[in-house]
Structure to design on (551 residues):
């Protein structure tokens, strides 16, 4: 499969000013990753691991200090293609309140296509279509501040979808939501992946990362593990070393194994574990 | 408590006035204000008031909503009324100690009061029948011809609509900060005005900080959604003059001409 995003030896430094003077922070140190089109990659890590900085580098909001990023072949540092890059790789942010621009849901969703100069009739079609796809069509004339966090985040997703990106980067989209909002948003993310969009999910929730088909663990600006959820969760030592929890189902499977029940390694979600236990004789 | 504040004073409806192009309504309001200053006799005011009354009836906005707009200016109204009554020289008709009420003063006072009341009703009818978004859209379109002289019409409209969008967000933020301060023993409700104003400082500073944070987040979100100013931008809601808008414009200018003719024909009352 073709790689929609190629990260080549990316480094990113910034200078933090404090009372004691300024110091250079190496947020990302030599990261190389390829993201194939249509894949679902989760990037996890602790606070300050560089995962959010990486996300902002992916669509040119931040530009690499060293190395480069190619989105659909365009260098993110190339100003001539910056808008192509941002249209191809859309981005959903953490705070649902601070990323909605307009005071009416449908006007907000239309913001992206308006900026791209899409003809009004087509904007209308796109807005209706994407609002339906995130189940927010009935709220199209409402004001965003009257919606719940999960609903606002779905509007934000619709706003990105309306630009028809091939890849969507989610930068901790559920961090500020309640459990129900988290579920709603995760359901939409899975659906987008099934519909063929490339999804990159930055998160610190293990159970969300478990739903991806590839997990990249970052720590201190480096990639320290990269593999399928099964592979990642099998290596509990690494996870424990950087203090990330394994999902409940994985932990449970591990304990069952210690108890002498041969749970296969690919069982990482609650549903699959329940299914296995029910069939266990 | 802060959440109860409603935005603007839009009265939802689908009357012909609601459905008019916002540009027509803005121009109509401006013309009406100009007309109120052209008029110099009571017959002219009667005509303006009648025209206003027709618009109000057609708009189906309840009278109580219109009157609500007058409430905040009652003090200004009374002040100018009294000032005019006592300060204008002329034939004295009534004395009250050192104060003298003149015939001219009384007429001027009534005159100004009518002018102010009509002015407020006229402009509240605009905001009552137009959503803030349509209003900013209309302003943007009306100002766009001046863009070639360097007026940033699009940016002005964008700032206005973002300000409108973030009023509830900032109110929520202020509410949160107040609760956090109250939880640590801050007291916003007692003391005199000075004390209360002082107790607001610990709210304002964090509020400013979060306003900047929100602005930064929003700028990033707008950039990643390819915002690059007004150039080459299209709009979901196209603004097109329909027949009703053209007819309204013609009526507006005929009315303006009528008011000018009336001023020339009828003797001035002041």
């Amino acid at each position: 499969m073709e790689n929609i995003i190629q990260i080549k030896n990316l480094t990113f430094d910034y200078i933090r000013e404090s009372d004691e003077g300024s110091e250079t922070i190496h947020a990302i140190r030599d990261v190389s990753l390829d993201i194939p089109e249509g894949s679902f990659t989760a990037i996890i890590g602790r606070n300050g691991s560089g995962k959010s900085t990486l996300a902002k580098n992916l669509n040119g909001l931040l530009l690499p200090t060293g190395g480069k990023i190619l989105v659909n072949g365009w260098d993110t540092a190339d100003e001539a293609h910056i808008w192509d890059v941002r249209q191809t790789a859309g981005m959903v942010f953490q705070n649902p309140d601070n990323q909605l621009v307009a005071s009416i849901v449908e006007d907000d969703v239309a913001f992206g296509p308006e900026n791209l100069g899409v003809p009004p009739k087509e904007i209308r079609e796109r807005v209706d279509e994407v609002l339906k796809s995130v189940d927010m069509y009935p709220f199209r004339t409402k004001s965003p501040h009257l919606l719940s966090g999960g609903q606002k985040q779905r509007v934000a997703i619709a706003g990105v979808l309306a630009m028809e990106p091939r890849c969507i980067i989610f930068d901790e989209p559920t961090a500020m939501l309640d459990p129900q909002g988290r579920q709603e948003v995760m359901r939409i993310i899975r659906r987008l992946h099934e519909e063929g969009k490339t999804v990159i999910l930055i998160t610190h929730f293990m159970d969300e990362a478990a739903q991806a088909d590839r997990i990249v663990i970052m720590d201190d600006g480096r990639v320290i593990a990269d593999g399928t959820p099964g592979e990642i969760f099998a290596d509990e030592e690494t996870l424990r070393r950087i203090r990330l929890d394994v999902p409940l189902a994985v932990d449970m499977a591990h304990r069952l194994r210690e108890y002498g029940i041969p749970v296969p390694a690919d069982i990482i979600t609650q549903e699959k574990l329940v299914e296995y236990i029910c069939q266990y004789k | 408590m802060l959440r109860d504040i409603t935005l603007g004073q839009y009265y939802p409806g689908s009357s012909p006035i609601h459905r008019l192009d916002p540009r027509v309504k803005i121009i109509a309001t401006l013309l009406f204000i100009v007309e109120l200053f052209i008029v110099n006799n009571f017959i002219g005011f009667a005509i303006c008031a009648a025209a206003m009354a027709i618009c109000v009836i057609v708009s189906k906005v309840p009278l109580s909503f219109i009157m609500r707009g007058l409430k905040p200016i009652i003090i200004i109204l009374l002040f100018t009324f009294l000032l005019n009554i006592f300060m204008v020289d002329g034939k004295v008709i009534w004395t009250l100690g050192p104060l003298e009420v003149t015939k001219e003063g009384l007429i001027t006072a009534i005159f100004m009061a009518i002018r102010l009341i009509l002015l407020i009703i006229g402009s509240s009818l605009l905001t009552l029948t137009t959503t803030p978004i349509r209003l900013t859209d209309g302003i943007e379109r009306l100002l766009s011809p001046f863009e070639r002289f360097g007026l940033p019409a699009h940016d002005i409209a964008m700032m206005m609509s973002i300000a409108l969008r973030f009023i509830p967000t900032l109110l929520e933020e202020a509410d949160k900060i107040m609760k956090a301060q109250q939880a640590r023993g801050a007291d916003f409700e007692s003391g005199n005005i000075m004390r209360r104003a002082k107790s607001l400082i610990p709210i304002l500073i964090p509020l400013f900080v979060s306003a900047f944070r929100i602005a930064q987040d929003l700028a990033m979100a707008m950039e990643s959604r390819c915002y690059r100013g007004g150039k080459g931008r299209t709009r979901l809601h196209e603004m097109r003059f329909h027949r009703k808008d053209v007819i309204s414009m013609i009526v507006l200018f005929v009315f303006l001409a009528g008011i000018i003719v009336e001023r020339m024909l009828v003797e001035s009352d002041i």
Q: What stands out?
A: The longest helix of chain A spans residues 179-194. Chain A has two domains: 3-245, 247-281. Residues 110 and 124 of chain A are 8 Å apart (CA to CA). The domain at 3-245 of chain A is CATH 3.40.50.300 (Rossmann fold).
